[in-house]
């Protein structure tokens, strides 16, 4: 049966029906998922209660996985999941919510800023696949911004300005924006900045998109204050409501998005409640800057 996708967002985002994620996919289904991602940039699979093995198996059918190592403040001895998963929950190894002042939690709430996954790595991520195991009683939505539509809406002068610009990305920049500076020397070295282009071209569709993120802290060759104002103006433009889809989670939902074409952010929720979200990530094809 052909994959059915219905657009549910303002200018992107498709909801997928008639596909069983617990079973191996046919080659045509794998191709259809990629084609759907090229078109919609975000795909929603409602109510798919997958275990970790099924989630991982589905991801691996789409491409090689990026390992989640050294990207948070969780020590290896504190991991709740294997490194095939990015643990974006608010839970410790004992399955209890982090205390309000836990530095692991304070670092993680930086995910409430607009960002693109792994833009702080020399080879940034391709797709992210986030699965909801438990959700809070309120809040905790995830919002997505279509960076292709945002680019298309720029005037010609601004399109010329962003062409060829290179930014420095680091989690030190994004966490600094929320006042988090409690880093060890080892963490500062681990989170040292990498270079990313500000304008990306999709390898299949040829569409251009802005490559923005809270992790972007400077533009090469620009004074830092001027770069930050320029990036902030672009961010405000790109996150207008006409470019944004807000997903209200249900247990079992799986969302898949293309980090090359979108930004996203988590929304606040009660500190004491559980939000168990587990993400697999498809590795990117290579650096954006040679």
Short overview:
The protein has 290 residues and is an alpha+beta fold.
Query: Which residue ranges are poorly predicted, with pLDDT under 50 across at least 5 consecutive positions?
Result: none
How many strand segments? Answer: 15
Our count of domains comes out at 1
Total DSSP helices:
8
Name of the CATH class: Alpha Beta
Secondary-structure element order, as H and E?
EEHEHEHEEHHEHHEEEEHEEEE
The CATH architecture category equals 4-Layer Sandwich
Spatial sequence of strands, sheet with the most strands? 1-2-3-13-5-15-4
Considering DSSP H and I runs of 4 or more, what fraction of the residues is helical?
10-25%
Q: Distance between termini? A: 42 Å
Structural class of the secondary structure composition? alpha+beta
Radius of gyration: 18 Å
> If you consult CATH, what is the topology?
Double-stranded beta-helix
**Major sheet, described briefly?**
7 strands, mixed
Q: Mean pLDDT across all residues, rounded?
A: 97
* Shape summary: globular
Instruction: Report the β-strand fraction as a percent range.
Output: 15-25%
The CATH superfamily is identified as Clavaminate synthase-like
Key features of this structure:
290 residues, alpha+beta, Double-stranded beta-helix, seven-stranded mixed sheet, 22% strand
